[in-house]
User: Fold this.
Amino acid sequence: MATHPAFLAFISAALFGAATPASKGLLADLSPFQLAGLLYLGAALGVAPVAGLSQGWRMPWRLNPANRWRLWGAVLAGGVAGPVLLLAGLRVASAASVSLWLNLELVATAVLGHAFFRDHLTRYGWLGVAVTLLAATTLSVGSGSAGILAGLLVLLACCCWGLDNHLTALIDGLSPSQSTFWKGLVAGSVSLAIGLTLHPFTATGFIALGAVVVGIWSYGASITLYIHAAQRLGATRSQIIFSTAPFFGLLLSAALLGEKLHGLHLFAALLFVVGIALLMIESHAHTHDHTALSHDHRHRHDDRHHTHDHHGVDPTVEHTHWHDHDPVTHVHAHWPDLHHRHGHNA
Assistant:
Protein backbone atom coordinates (compact mmCIF):
# COMPACT_ATOMS: atom_id res chain seq x y z
CA MET A 1 0.00 0.00 0.00
CA ALA A 2 1.38 3.39 -0.99
CA THR A 3 2.06 5.92 1.75
CA HIS A 4 -0.61 8.62 1.96
CA PRO A 5 0.71 11.95 0.63
CA ALA A 6 -0.53 13.76 3.75
CA PHE A 7 1.77 11.62 5.90
CA LEU A 8 4.71 12.39 3.59
CA ALA A 9 4.02 16.12 3.93
CA PHE A 10 3.87 15.76 7.74
CA ILE A 11 7.24 13.99 7.96
CA SER A 12 8.68 16.57 5.57
CA ALA A 13 7.46 19.30 7.93
CA ALA A 14 9.09 17.68 10.96
CA LEU A 15 12.44 17.40 9.21
CA PHE A 16 12.34 20.97 7.93
CA GLY A 17 11.21 22.32 11.29
CA ALA A 18 14.41 20.98 12.82
CA ALA A 19 16.48 23.12 10.42
CA THR A 20 15.70 26.45 12.10
CA PRO A 21 17.11 25.75 15.59
CA ALA A 22 19.97 23.75 14.06
CA SER A 23 20.86 26.59 11.70
CA LYS A 24 20.77 29.18 14.50
CA GLY A 25 23.84 27.63 16.08
CA LEU A 26 25.67 27.19 12.77
CA LEU A 27 25.27 30.89 11.91
CA ALA A 28 27.78 31.74 14.63
CA ASP A 29 30.54 30.44 12.33
CA LEU A 30 29.05 30.70 8.82
CA SER A 31 27.58 33.55 6.82
CA PRO A 32 24.00 33.14 5.51
CA PHE A 33 25.24 32.46 1.96
CA GLN A 34 27.86 29.96 3.15
CA LEU A 35 25.37 28.09 5.33
CA ALA A 36 22.69 28.07 2.61
CA GLY A 37 25.25 26.66 0.18
CA LEU A 38 26.32 23.86 2.53
CA LEU A 39 22.71 23.02 3.41
CA TYR A 40 21.70 22.61 -0.22
CA LEU A 41 24.85 20.76 -1.20
CA GLY A 42 24.03 18.44 1.69
CA ALA A 43 20.54 18.02 0.23
CA ALA A 44 22.04 17.02 -3.14
CA LEU A 45 24.47 14.63 -1.45
CA GLY A 46 21.69 13.01 0.56
CA VAL A 47 19.43 12.21 -2.40
CA ALA A 48 22.15 11.39 -4.95
CA PRO A 49 22.28 7.64 -4.13
CA VAL A 50 18.55 7.20 -4.85
CA ALA A 51 18.01 9.86 -7.51
CA GLY A 52 18.73 7.51 -10.40
CA LEU A 53 17.16 4.34 -9.07
CA SER A 54 13.55 4.79 -10.16
CA GLN A 55 13.94 5.92 -13.75
CA GLY A 56 17.64 6.38 -14.49
CA TRP A 57 19.36 9.74 -14.56
CA ARG A 58 17.47 12.47 -16.40
CA MET A 59 19.38 15.61 -17.37
CA PRO A 60 17.41 18.82 -16.72
CA TRP A 61 18.43 20.37 -20.05
CA ARG A 62 16.61 17.52 -21.80
CA LEU A 63 13.28 18.48 -20.24
CA ASN A 64 10.76 20.28 -22.41
CA PRO A 65 10.88 24.11 -22.20
CA ALA A 66 7.98 24.41 -19.74
CA ASN A 67 9.53 21.99 -17.26
CA ARG A 68 13.00 23.55 -17.62
CA TRP A 69 11.49 26.93 -16.79
CA ARG A 70 9.73 25.46 -13.74
CA LEU A 71 12.89 23.73 -12.50
CA TRP A 72 15.22 26.71 -12.84
CA GLY A 73 12.59 29.04 -11.42
CA ALA A 74 12.31 26.74 -8.38
CA VAL A 75 16.11 26.62 -8.06
CA LEU A 76 16.44 30.41 -8.09
CA ALA A 77 13.45 31.23 -5.88
CA GLY A 78 13.46 28.31 -3.46
CA GLY A 79 17.06 27.17 -3.57
CA VAL A 80 19.01 30.45 -3.65
CA ALA A 81 16.88 33.43 -2.63
CA GLY A 82 14.60 31.81 -0.02
CA PRO A 83 17.24 30.15 2.21
CA VAL A 84 19.54 33.18 2.20
CA LEU A 85 16.68 35.53 3.16
CA LEU A 86 15.59 33.15 5.92
CA LEU A 87 19.09 32.76 7.36
CA ALA A 88 19.65 36.53 7.22
CA GLY A 89 16.52 36.97 9.31
CA LEU A 90 17.54 34.14 11.64
CA ARG A 91 20.84 35.86 12.29
CA VAL A 92 19.10 38.85 13.94
CA ALA A 93 16.07 37.12 15.50
CA SER A 94 15.42 34.18 17.81
CA ALA A 95 14.86 30.71 16.36
CA ALA A 96 11.41 30.61 17.98
CA SER A 97 10.33 33.88 16.34
CA VAL A 98 11.59 32.82 12.93
CA SER A 99 9.87 29.44 13.32
CA LEU A 100 6.56 31.20 13.93
CA TRP A 101 6.96 33.55 10.99
CA LEU A 102 7.48 30.58 8.68
CA ASN A 103 3.71 30.09 8.78
CA LEU A 104 3.62 32.94 6.28
CA GLU A 105 4.73 30.42 3.67
CA LEU A 106 1.23 28.94 3.84
CA VAL A 107 -0.32 32.33 3.09
CA ALA A 108 2.09 32.97 0.23
CA THR A 109 1.46 29.53 -1.30
CA ALA A 110 -2.32 29.85 -1.03
CA VAL A 111 -2.45 33.37 -2.48
CA LEU A 112 -0.07 32.59 -5.34
CA GLY A 113 -1.92 29.35 -6.05
CA HIS A 114 -5.30 31.03 -6.19
CA ALA A 115 -4.04 33.94 -8.27
CA PHE A 116 -1.71 32.27 -10.77
CA PHE A 117 -1.66 28.45 -10.60
CA ARG A 118 -5.32 27.35 -10.72
CA ASP A 119 -4.89 25.76 -7.30
CA HIS A 120 -8.29 26.72 -5.87
CA LEU A 121 -9.63 25.84 -2.44
CA THR A 122 -13.19 25.03 -1.35
CA ARG A 123 -14.76 26.71 1.67
CA TYR A 124 -13.36 23.98 3.92
CA GLY A 125 -9.92 24.53 2.42
CA TRP A 126 -9.98 28.27 3.08
CA LEU A 127 -11.30 27.62 6.58
CA GLY A 128 -8.33 25.29 7.10
CA VAL A 129 -6.02 28.09 6.00
CA ALA A 130 -7.72 30.52 8.38
CA VAL A 131 -7.48 28.16 11.36
CA THR A 132 -3.82 27.46 10.61
CA LEU A 133 -3.11 31.19 10.50
CA LEU A 134 -4.97 31.60 13.77
CA ALA A 135 -2.64 28.96 15.22
CA ALA A 136 0.36 30.94 13.98
CA THR A 137 -1.03 34.14 15.49
CA THR A 138 -1.66 32.38 18.79
CA LEU A 139 1.92 31.13 18.88
CA SER A 140 3.13 34.66 18.21
CA VAL A 141 1.38 36.12 21.25
CA GLY A 142 3.89 36.90 23.94
CA SER A 143 6.91 36.04 21.81
CA GLY A 144 7.93 39.67 21.47
CA SER A 145 9.32 41.40 18.40
CA ALA A 146 12.49 40.27 16.74
CA GLY A 147 12.61 43.39 14.65
CA ILE A 148 10.93 44.72 11.52
CA LEU A 149 13.91 43.87 9.33
CA ALA A 150 13.99 40.22 10.40
CA GLY A 151 10.24 39.87 9.86
CA LEU A 152 10.46 41.33 6.37
CA LEU A 153 13.34 39.04 5.45
CA VAL A 154 11.39 35.95 6.53
CA LEU A 155 8.28 37.20 4.70
CA LEU A 156 10.28 37.56 1.48
CA ALA A 157 11.74 34.07 2.02
CA CYS A 158 8.23 32.65 2.39
CA CYS A 159 7.13 34.33 -0.85
CA CYS A 160 10.09 32.73 -2.62
CA TRP A 161 9.18 29.32 -1.23
CA GLY A 162 5.52 29.81 -2.12
CA LEU A 163 6.54 30.28 -5.75
CA ASP A 164 8.93 27.34 -5.50
CA ASN A 165 6.15 25.12 -4.12
CA HIS A 166 3.92 25.67 -7.15
CA LEU A 167 6.64 25.41 -9.76
CA THR A 168 8.00 22.19 -8.24
CA ALA A 169 4.56 20.59 -7.97
CA LEU A 170 4.11 20.99 -11.74
CA ILE A 171 7.43 19.47 -12.84
CA ASP A 172 7.15 16.15 -14.63
CA GLY A 173 9.95 14.25 -16.33
CA LEU A 174 12.05 14.27 -13.17
CA SER A 175 11.46 12.17 -10.07
CA PRO A 176 11.13 14.08 -6.75
CA SER A 177 14.61 12.92 -5.70
CA GLN A 178 16.11 14.14 -8.99
CA SER A 179 14.38 17.51 -8.68
CA THR A 180 15.83 17.80 -5.19
CA PHE A 181 19.29 16.77 -6.41
CA TRP A 182 19.48 19.37 -9.17
CA LYS A 183 18.03 22.09 -6.96
CA GLY A 184 20.51 21.27 -4.23
CA LEU A 185 23.53 21.00 -6.52
CA VAL A 186 22.93 24.21 -8.47
CA ALA A 187 21.55 26.35 -5.64
CA GLY A 188 24.15 25.09 -3.17
CA SER A 189 27.04 25.76 -5.53
CA VAL A 190 25.80 29.27 -6.37
CA SER A 191 25.15 30.23 -2.75
CA LEU A 192 28.47 28.84 -1.50
CA ALA A 193 30.39 30.59 -4.27
CA ILE A 194 28.75 33.90 -3.38
CA GLY A 195 29.41 33.28 0.31
CA LEU A 196 33.10 32.56 -0.25
CA THR A 197 33.40 35.68 -2.38
CA LEU A 198 31.81 37.97 0.19
CA HIS A 199 33.31 36.50 3.38
CA PRO A 200 36.34 34.37 4.30
CA PHE A 201 35.53 30.81 5.30
CA THR A 202 36.52 30.53 8.96
CA ALA A 203 34.37 27.59 10.13
CA THR A 204 36.01 24.37 11.26
CA GLY A 205 35.59 21.13 9.37
CA PHE A 206 33.28 19.88 12.13
CA ILE A 207 30.95 22.88 11.70
CA ALA A 208 30.93 22.46 7.91
CA LEU A 209 30.14 18.76 8.28
CA GLY A 210 27.33 19.61 10.68
CA ALA A 211 25.81 21.96 8.10
CA VAL A 212 25.98 19.26 5.42
CA VAL A 213 24.31 16.72 7.73
CA VAL A 214 21.49 19.17 8.49
CA GLY A 215 21.15 19.70 4.74
CA ILE A 216 20.92 15.97 4.05
CA TRP A 217 17.94 15.51 6.37
CA SER A 218 16.21 18.86 6.82
CA TYR A 219 16.50 19.86 3.16
CA GLY A 220 17.27 16.77 1.06
CA ALA A 221 14.92 14.26 2.67
CA SER A 222 12.36 16.94 3.53
CA ILE A 223 12.17 18.45 0.03
CA THR A 224 11.93 15.03 -1.62
CA LEU A 225 9.04 13.98 0.61
CA TYR A 226 7.33 17.34 0.06
CA ILE A 227 7.54 17.02 -3.73
CA HIS A 228 6.01 13.53 -3.54
CA ALA A 229 3.14 15.00 -1.52
CA ALA A 230 2.70 18.16 -3.62
CA GLN A 231 2.50 16.26 -6.90
CA ARG A 232 -0.37 14.18 -5.47
CA LEU A 233 -2.15 16.73 -3.26
CA GLY A 234 -1.35 20.02 -4.97
CA ALA A 235 0.97 22.67 -3.58
CA THR A 236 -1.53 24.56 -1.41
CA ARG A 237 -2.89 21.48 0.38
CA SER A 238 0.58 20.08 0.93
CA GLN A 239 1.65 23.45 2.26
CA ILE A 240 -1.16 23.51 4.81
CA ILE A 241 0.14 20.23 6.25
CA PHE A 242 3.73 21.46 5.90
CA SER A 243 2.75 24.49 7.99
CA THR A 244 3.26 22.30 11.08
CA ALA A 245 7.03 22.72 10.49
CA PRO A 246 7.21 25.94 12.56
CA PHE A 247 5.67 24.11 15.50
CA PHE A 248 8.37 21.46 15.34
CA GLY A 249 10.92 24.25 15.11
CA LEU A 250 9.42 25.90 18.18
CA LEU A 251 9.59 22.69 20.24
CA LEU A 252 13.17 22.02 19.20
CA SER A 253 14.12 25.64 19.93
CA ALA A 254 12.96 25.03 23.49
CA ALA A 255 14.68 21.66 23.76
CA LEU A 256 17.98 22.55 22.10
CA LEU A 257 18.33 26.30 22.67
CA GLY A 258 16.52 26.70 25.99
CA GLU A 259 13.83 29.05 24.68
CA LYS A 260 10.66 29.05 26.81
CA LEU A 261 7.27 27.61 25.81
CA HIS A 262 3.91 28.72 27.21
CA GLY A 263 0.36 27.39 27.55
CA LEU A 264 -0.62 29.15 24.34
CA HIS A 265 1.61 26.75 22.41
CA LEU A 266 -0.57 23.77 23.39
CA PHE A 267 -3.68 25.62 22.26
CA ALA A 268 -1.97 26.46 18.97
CA ALA A 269 -1.08 22.80 18.48
CA LEU A 270 -4.77 21.91 18.76
CA LEU A 271 -5.60 24.57 16.17
CA PHE A 272 -3.03 23.06 13.81
CA VAL A 273 -4.75 19.69 14.11
CA VAL A 274 -8.17 21.25 13.41
CA GLY A 275 -6.85 23.15 10.40
CA ILE A 276 -5.32 20.03 8.86
CA ALA A 277 -8.51 18.04 9.56
CA LEU A 278 -10.58 20.64 7.70
CA LEU A 279 -8.24 20.33 4.76
CA MET A 280 -8.46 16.55 4.63
CA ILE A 281 -12.27 16.34 4.88
CA GLU A 282 -12.94 18.81 2.08
CA SER A 283 -14.61 17.17 -0.88
CA HIS A 284 -14.12 18.60 -4.36
CA ALA A 285 -15.82 16.87 -7.28
CA HIS A 286 -17.25 18.15 -10.54
CA THR A 287 -17.44 17.27 -14.21
CA HIS A 288 -14.10 18.10 -15.79
CA ASP A 289 -12.28 17.49 -19.05
CA HIS A 290 -8.83 16.04 -19.63
CA THR A 291 -7.22 16.82 -22.97
CA ALA A 292 -4.74 14.45 -24.61
CA LEU A 293 -1.45 14.53 -22.71
CA SER A 294 1.91 12.79 -22.82
CA HIS A 295 4.31 13.07 -19.89
CA ASP A 296 6.59 11.22 -17.48
CA HIS A 297 5.97 10.97 -13.75
CA ARG A 298 5.50 8.49 -10.90
CA HIS A 299 2.05 6.88 -11.01
CA ARG A 300 -0.11 3.84 -10.24
CA HIS A 301 -2.76 2.06 -12.29
CA ASP A 302 -5.54 1.89 -9.73
CA ASP A 303 -6.64 5.50 -10.25
CA ARG A 304 -8.88 6.91 -12.98
CA HIS A 305 -6.18 8.42 -15.14
CA HIS A 306 -3.57 5.75 -15.88
CA THR A 307 -5.39 3.14 -17.92
CA HIS A 308 -2.60 2.25 -20.35
CA ASP A 309 -1.75 -1.43 -20.51
CA HIS A 310 1.07 -3.16 -18.68
CA HIS A 311 1.65 -6.87 -18.67
CA GLY A 312 2.45 -8.34 -15.27
CA VAL A 313 2.50 -4.99 -13.42
CA ASP A 314 0.71 -4.73 -10.08
CA PRO A 315 -1.72 -1.77 -10.44
CA THR A 316 -1.08 -0.73 -6.84
CA VAL A 317 2.70 -0.41 -7.29
CA GLU A 318 4.10 3.02 -8.20
CA HIS A 319 6.43 3.19 -11.20
CA THR A 320 7.72 5.76 -13.68
CA HIS A 321 7.79 5.88 -17.48
CA TRP A 322 6.65 7.99 -20.40
CA HIS A 323 2.92 7.47 -21.02
CA ASP A 324 -0.03 8.89 -22.93
CA HIS A 325 -3.43 10.05 -21.72
CA ASP A 326 -6.43 9.94 -24.03
CA PRO A 327 -9.05 12.74 -23.84
CA VAL A 328 -11.70 11.99 -21.20
CA THR A 329 -14.55 13.74 -19.39
CA HIS A 330 -15.61 12.40 -16.00
CA VAL A 331 -16.60 13.21 -12.41
CA HIS A 332 -14.67 12.24 -9.29
CA ALA A 333 -13.22 13.79 -6.16
CA HIS A 334 -9.76 15.19 -6.86
CA TRP A 335 -7.00 17.54 -5.79
CA PRO A 336 -5.06 19.92 -8.06
CA ASP A 337 -2.34 17.41 -8.88
CA LEU A 338 -0.45 16.98 -12.17
CA HIS A 339 -3.70 15.94 -13.89
CA HIS A 340 -6.08 18.51 -12.41
CA ARG A 341 -4.98 22.08 -13.05
CA HIS A 342 -8.24 23.34 -14.56
CA GLY A 343 -10.26 26.38 -13.65
CA HIS A 344 -13.50 25.97 -11.66
CA ASN A 345 -15.65 27.63 -9.08
CA ALA A 346 -14.60 26.68 -5.55
